[in-house]
Amino acid sequence: MIRSMTGYAEKRFVHKSFSLKISIRALNHRFLDWNYRGAPLGNVEDKLRKLCQQRLHRGRIEVLVDVNFFGADKWEFHINQNLLNKMLIGLDKAAVVSQRHVTFSLENLLNTPHIVQFRRKDFTKEDTEFLEQSFEKTLDLLIRERAREGREIKRQLSAHAQNIKTLMSQVEKRAKKQPRLIKQKLMERLEELSRGEALPEGKLAEEASLLAQRYDLTEEIARLKSHMKYLRELLDSKGSEPVGKKLDFLAQELYREANTLNSKAQDIEVVRRSLALKSEVESIRQQLQNIE
After folding, report:
1. How many angstroms separate the CA atoms of 261 and 241, rounded?
2. Are 104 and 91 in contact (CB under 8 A)?
């Protein structure tokens, strides 16, 4: 199945003790790259990452979770009384030495490191299940978005594949003239070698074989046809397995064959069509950068 690596999904959820806003952004990446930011979730984050790994295979996945608690029961408040007493004694001594009245406001207290600690209580089993279910629903939305983009990419890839098929048909027709061109090259080569003298039969056979191998397009055309058949199979695949890496490798093979075809062609029309074919394959390779 063709799916894009890019996409964005955002959903809001309400639990009995807190509300959630979950956003997932997917970008291009060779592998699956998990990036989390937002409210500290402790061990829950690992569970969300594993859920993501089960559903997605490639892409940079940026996850943001905002949690808004409705009441104070989810928070713990603690004052380090020993440290506070020590600090107050020090302030009293400083007041005596400086002969100045030292005041200490509530704001000073809250902003002093290690004096006051606010800590969120661990999520309950029910809270964790709600977080996981909410994340999966947002992930579902992202996957649908990636599938939608994938359908558009498939349409573009199919158009390029059809263009390649047309160009290959034209090349195959023009390649039938290649033997005549090879014969002409052979005659020119033999004349160059003989310089008016008769050549041994073995030398004639060797030169004919070398020129045939150098300029014959049969193998390249056959391999291009085989690659294009496999490309069509991958584009039409209905399975859930990602095909991006297979398509990327196949595009490299297509480009290699198109390049060889261009270098061996002796007909200017074949050269033009092979260059156009390379351009179509390059367009496919660019599109594949966005395929999972």
Report:
1. 33
2. yes
Q: What's the rounded Cα separation, in Å, for the pair 214 and 249?
A: 26
Structure tokens that stand for 197 in this block: 């003298």
pLDDT tens digits, one per residue of 170-212 = 988 887 765 555 555 555 555 655 565 554 555 545 555 555 5
What's the number of CA atoms in the CB half-sphere (13 Å) around residue 90?
6
String of DSSP letters for 201-260: HHHHHHHHHHHHHHH--HHHHHHHHHHHHHHHHHHT--SSS--HHHHHHHHHHHHHHHHH
DSSP per-residue string spanning 52-111: HHHH--SEEEEEEEEEEESSSTTEEEEE-HHHHHHHHHHHHHHHHHHT------HHHHHH
Least confident piece of the model among 12-16, 187-191, 234-238: 187-191
**Domains recognised in the chain with CATH numbers:** 7-71+127-144 (3.30.230), 75-120 (no CATH), 149-288 (no CATH)
Give the pLDDT confidence of 62-95 residue by residue, as tens digits. 999 998 887 666 666 667 788 878 877 887 888 7
DSSP 160: H
Percent share of the chain, pLDDT over 90: 47
Name the nearest CA neighbour of 34 among 63, 11, 65.
63
Task: Write down the pLDDT at residue 119.
Answer: 67
Helix (H) or strand (E) holding 152, with range, is: helix 125-175
Distance CA 118, CA 15 (A): 22
The token pair at 37 is 């930011």
Helix 43-55 and helix 125-175: axis angle, to 10°?
Answer: 30
